[in-house]
Amino acid sequence: MRHKKGFNKLGRNSAHREAMLSNMASSLILHKRITTTLQKAKALRSFVEPIITLSKEDTMHNRRMAFKYLQNKESVKELFREVSNKVADRPGGYTRILKTGMRAGDNADMCIMELVDYNEAMLGTKEAKKTTTGRTRRSRTKKTEEAPAAEVKSEKIEETPAAEIKTEETEKTEENPPQDQDAENDGTEK
């Protein structure tokens, strides 16, 4: 029976599992978002959320407890300086798991795990993100400059209604009326 066996061992022994979760938690705190498998993300959630709860109260004891789990001074500094301020009013649920599909090699469920308060797209502050990042793609300013020229061409087409076009065609046919075939034949025989 498997009663009360409530966590995934992830195919590793306990030392390897703790080291992996510690590294993943440090990466999550430093980078605010990581890509991993779904099972690892679920295991990481139960590992990192109590640590984030510790950061709400900045005491020496809580810093030492966080360092015990994370084993990284930079991530502890980041946790207590920035992350704790963002999650101060949140009662729990500091992470979000977004499924991204299957991995190409072994068809494992992949996901993005992120800190909830740091996702600009979901918070609706896309404009803030655009101003902070540099340009990495080609701009489309040329196409926007060409758009007014295209509008001018379309206006010229609209200025000549279909009735005027038909009258021009009929005038051309009236200038050169079709001749009878017999008259043409008579002229060529002579």
Describe the structure.
- By secondary structure, the protein is mainly alpha-helical.
- The chain has 9 helices and 3 strands; from the N terminus they run αβαααββααααα.
- It has a 3-stranded antiparallel beta sheet with strand order 1-3-2.
- Strand 2 and strand 3 (109-115) form a beta hairpin.
- Helix 3 packs across helix 4.
- The protein is extended and about 105 Å long.
Topology (SSEs and partners):
Blueprint: H1 14-31, E1 33-37, H2 38-54, H3 60-70, H4 73-86, E2 95-102, E3 109-115, H5 120-123, H6 126-132, H7 141-159, H8 162-175, H9 181-189
Antiparallel strand pairs: 1-3, 2-3
Keywords:
190 residues, mainly alpha, 9 helices, 11% strand, extended
State the end-to-end distance: 116 Å
User: Hey, roughly how much beta strand do the residues contain?
Assistant: 5-15%
Number of strands: 3
Class from secondary-structure proportions: mainly alpha
Run of helices and strands: HEHHHEEHHHHH
Task: Specify the overall morphology.
Answer: extended
Q: Walk across the major sheet and give the strand order.
A: 1-3-2
For the largest beta-sheet, the strand count, sense and barrel status come to: 3 strands, antiparallel
- What is the residue-averaged pLDDT? 80
Low-pLDDT stretches: none
Give a short synopsis of this structure.
This protein is mainly alpha-helical and 190 residues long. Helices cover 59% and strands 11% of the residues. The chain has helices at 14-31, 38-54, 60-70, 73-86, 120-123, 126-132, 141-159, 162-175, 181-189; strands spanning 33-37, 95-102, 109-115.
